[in-house]
Amino acid sequence: MAESAVFVWEGKDKQGRTTKGEITSSTPAIAKAELRRQGIVANKVTKKRAGLSFGGGGKVKPADIALFTRQMATMMRAGVPLVQAFDIVADGVDKPKLAELIKNIRQDVAGGNSFAAAIRRHPNEFDELFCNLVEAGEQSGALESMLDRIATYKEKTESLKAKVKKAMTYPIAVIVVAVIVSGILLVKVVPQFEQVFAGFGAELPAFTQLVIRFSEFAQAYWFLIAAGLIALGFVFSEIHKRSKGFRETMDKLVLKAPVAGNIVEKSAIARYARTLSTTFAAGVPLVDALNSVAGSTGNSVFVEAVYRIRDDVSTGQQLNFSMRNTGVFPNMVTQMVAIGEEAGALDDMLDKSATYYEEQVDNAVDNLTALMEPMIMAVLGVLVGGLIIAMYLPIFQLGAVVGG
Q1: Alpha carbon distance 55, 95 (integer Å)
Q2: Cα-Cα end-to-end distance for the chain
Q3: DSSP states of 119-153 as a string?
Q4: Is the dihedral of CA 349, 351, 354, 360 positive or negative?
């Protein structure tokens, strides 16, 4: 199949009025045929040139897919036909890449493909879970309610990811800012004081001498230090990407970290419960649902646990017993699942569990933010204040000697 492209066209409509616009197609001939079906006689069809794009032209992100799903669910609930809904949603988005993606899906659906088959052609944007849920909705004749369920799932998942990311990036940002400020002071400010101290002719305090040594080292090797930190970050990223054992080790260490480990653990439990609730409610068999759930937890410790649960459930064991045997799920979750299995409302109990742990993550992130604010002041105060005191200490001593 030829790759789709955007074509700019000019022509006349049914009333003979001159009009123009854009259309996504694989060739100019197919674009003209599509326009004729719309009652437009195209005189000119040319491929749109790629121009510079600032902001909004980047990669389609999961949050964009969540927005697209919510809009499609709203359109279908309002009774808008599927193909027309694609057109309306595509015209309303600001990101060109997302609009192009929607138009490509629309073209496939208009050509006779199912919605699920159309999105399977874009695996980078739509994962297997998304495609399976859409397919289940089409087969059951309840696509609009399924899209609404998927949209809710994606929105809550992305919100949870954003909260965890906020919790992880906040302390890192503080450390980076502290290092940059200290580096600037050591390389640019301390040398100016050092020149002043050279004319004192007296021995400098030990603290000031230590800071000056640090400054001389930073001035001489700042480039190597910066290059070393960049190289270290790159090596860590590559090892994390390529080594499964290293990722598993890091994931275990993260779960044991103070404060942050608690947030990551509750986040993984919330994702597990939310994804399993969504897939099970969609009519996906439990064993198949667990295959989709494993990758959504975001931590290899829970991924391994979910696969063990899947193997146990496939042999006839109840879900709550399997979860308890892994040793990674809290008693509250396993008890909620047990109640759900006994009452025949497993999806509802999983949904309640997910909501509870999402709120727990939200509260933990807020508490971490409140805790970090005084820590930021303390860290910056010690680093920056310490450097300033070291520089002014000889001046204070000199003033005391002169005054005496």
Answers
A1: 8
A2: 91
A3: HHT-TTTS-HHHHHHHHHHHHHT-HHHHHHHHHHH
A4: negative
DSSP 396: H
Phi-psi category of 150—alpha, beta or left, where left has phi over 0 and alpha has psi -120 to 50? alpha
Exposed, middle or buried: residue 115 (CB in 10 Å: 0-12, 13-18, 19+)? buried
Write a three-state SS string for 286-338: HHHHHHHHHCCCCCHHHHHHHHHHHHHHHCCCCHHHHHHHHCCCCHHHHHHHH
Which H or E run includes 278?
helix 260-281
Determine contact, residues 278/150, Cβ cutoff 8 Å.
Answer: yes
The span from the CA of 104 to the CA of 75, in Å, is: 18
- Do residues 57 and 98 touch, judged by C-beta distance below 8 A? no
Q: Give the global pTM.
A: 0.65
What distance in Å separates the CA atoms of residue 47 and residue 29, rounded to the nearest whole number? 12
Rg (CA), the chain: 30
In angstroms, the CA 133 to CA 123 distance is 14
Token readout for 22 is 């854009």
Q: What angle do CA 156, 292, 275 make, to 5 degrees?
A: 25
Dihedral sign of CA atoms 104, 109, 112, 118 in order = positive
What are the φ and ψ backbone dihedral angles of 138, each rounded to 5 degrees?
-65, -40
Can you give the pLDDT of all 404 residues of the chain as single tens digits?
Answer: 445 667 787 888 777 777 777 777 767 777 787 778 777 888 888 876 644 344 445 688 888 888 888 888 888 888 888 888 888 888 888 888 888 899 889 888 888 888 988 998 888 888 878 888 888 888 878 888 888 888 888 888 888 888 777 777 777 777 787 778 778 877 777 777 777 776 666 677 788 888 888 888 878 877 888 888 889 888 888 887 788 788 888 888 888 887 778 888 888 898 888 888 888 887 878 888 888 787 777 788 888 898 999 999 988 889 999 999 988 898 989 999 999 988 888 888 998 998 898 888 888 888 877 777 787 778 777 877 887 788 777 777 666 544 44
